[in-house]
Structures are given as structure tokens and as C-alpha cells.
Amino acid sequence: VASLGLLTCGTWQLSKAFVSPAQGVATEDARSALRGGAGVAPKAVASSSVVTPVAVLGASGAVAAAMMGQGARRGRVAAKATAAPVPIAEDEVPPPPPPFDPATQVGVTAPLGFFDPLGFAKTGDEAGFRKLRSAEIKHGRVAMMGAFGAVVQHYVQIPGFEKVPKGLGAVTSDPGSIGLIALVLASGVVELVFWKDDDNKAPGDYGNPVSFGVPLGWNDDMRNRELNNGRAAMFSALGIVVAELATGKDAVQQFS
Fold first, then answer.
1. CA distance 23 to 133
2. What global pTM score does this model have?
């Protein structure tokens, strides 16, 4: 619009410039007529002077129209570019977590590292591993108490059980057999009612009635120690039983 206004103003000024000579010629023509001279040539000049501003005006209009057309096309292109739909980036889906790896769990320590020669613990089977780990911890705890008790009972006997044989003979003689039944029942009640596995807790986490705090509290180092001592105690308890069946000697007598 501003360009069109400038062109129109310029054309008007050009028309004035071209009209002035025409008016001078017309005046000279009138004077010549009064003197009786011919005025053909001056009319022709005047006629051409009048046509020239019209031509300039037409050319200016053509240029203005062309500029307006380009502006309109640019406007349409800009409108199309603006109206073009912007692709919306889809939310990136996070990669799936790595499969459960039993080789990275607590209990994998030197010198054996991850020791599972029979392949009980499967990669990706977290539920199955939790059951195996819970059973390992329970058996380890029982074995530690059993191996320790096999040594202590050689020196100390509970009142009322003085005549009970030491070692495996206590299981088959009264009142030792009664004590065994009571011990199994009490252990079953504790495991089924109080010490049940919880998926929101680590396997074997049934609370700690005697907490010694750091560094003896619940941490990976203490859990590794418990697992390793439990594993050793299972071998120890099994060795005590096999040795007594083979020699008839209790755990302490095996050293004599």
C-alpha cells in the first residue's frame, strides 16, 4: 500500500511536469492564431505531451499491480507455512528394565562368586529366586542353631533332660522325642503365622528383635555374612549327623 501511494504521488508529479510544456505550447498556439499563423505543429506537440503522462500512469499502475500480486502471493505462502500442521513428537517410550539377574543379588561373594552349578536360579525368574533365597536363609539359620546346639548339648543339658542321650539318640528316647515334637510345632506356628514372606520386603526379612545398629544392622555386608555363615552351618550340621551315624560319637567326641 505504501509503495502504491508513492507510485501514485510520483505519477502525479510527473504529470505536472509534462503538462506544463503543453500549456506553454497551447498558449503559443493561441498567440499564433491571433497573428493568423498556422497552429498544426504546436497541436501535435501538445497532443503528444498529454499522452506521455497517461502512459507513465499506466506503466506505474502495471508496476503497482505486479507488486501487489507478489505481495499477495507472498502472503498466501506465508499463510500456508503458518497453517502447516506441526508434527507433535510422540512421548518416548522408556526402554524396558533389564531382566532379573540372580548373579547380581546379595550373597554372590568371593571366592566362588555366583555358584549355581545345577541352574536352580533362572535369569528373569525373580519370584522363583525369592522362594529359593527364602528357603536358603531359613535352612541356614536352622543349621547354625543346630550345629551350635550339637556342641553345647555335650556340656549343658536342660533340667529334666539329664538322662537323655547326647547326640542323635535324644530324638528317639523319652523325653527327648517329646521335646522334638514341641520344637517342630512351635517352629511351624512361627513360620506360618508370624514369619511369613512379604513381597514388599527382602527374602528372609522378618524383623530384627535385637538391632545393634550400624554396622551390625540391616545392610548388604551383614546379609552376606549371614548367608555365608548359614551355608557353612548347613555343611557343618550335615557333617555332624553323618559322622555320628558312622562312628557313634557326638559332635565334640569327634575331636577325640
1. 117
2. 0.61
